[in-house]
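Re: your question from the hallway

Yes, I did run it. Sequences:
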Amino acid sequence: DAKTTQPNSMESNEEEPVHLPCNHSTISGTDYIHWYRQLPSQGPEYVIHGLTSNVNNRMASLAIAEDRKSSTLILHRATLRDAAVYYCILRDISGNTPLVFGKGTRLSVIA
Amino acid sequence: DTEVTQTPKHLVMGMTNKKSLKCEQHMGHRAMYWYKQKAKKPPELMFVYSYEKLSINESVPSRFSPECPNSSLLNLHLHALQPEDSALYLCASSQSKVMDVYFGPGTRLTVL
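Structure:
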């Protein structure tokens, strides 16, 4: 299975942008890059996904390196409610690989 | 309705008990999942159902028995569990195996 590497933890000040990195040097051409997050005492929730181009939605932006070996999840203005564990996950376009979580990055937001 | 519901929220059981966890979704999703999550660890995949058929069993011990009675419901039957099985059990669903996955809030299970 293709794997991802993320920092164990990061800290951000409230209302500042946060850049959460993910390395996936063994990504294959048919792997989508997905991001999920898990808020305290909740189940994980989908954040964003992309294949090659940068993606934006109401929650975040996803910047994908040209060689696709790394990506960055961008929260434009962190709030206290964004404190969570963020997971970067590769999923094959065929859907034959289920959602498998790595260790993720625990984001703390300071008021 | 865009949510996955799980009951009960909390469950305490003895090692000789038989209990069931229930999961329901009304989004028309055809793939459903069970995950187990220990404290401070990422969720671990246990089972995947696709179109009501078990498609993945991640070598889960037989004391955990999944059941998908229809496309909206997913059960996890528990029997003769061990204290180390205490964890948060998460149910999830997706429209298909390639689409975004929606998670329920989980059932926190304690085995005494």
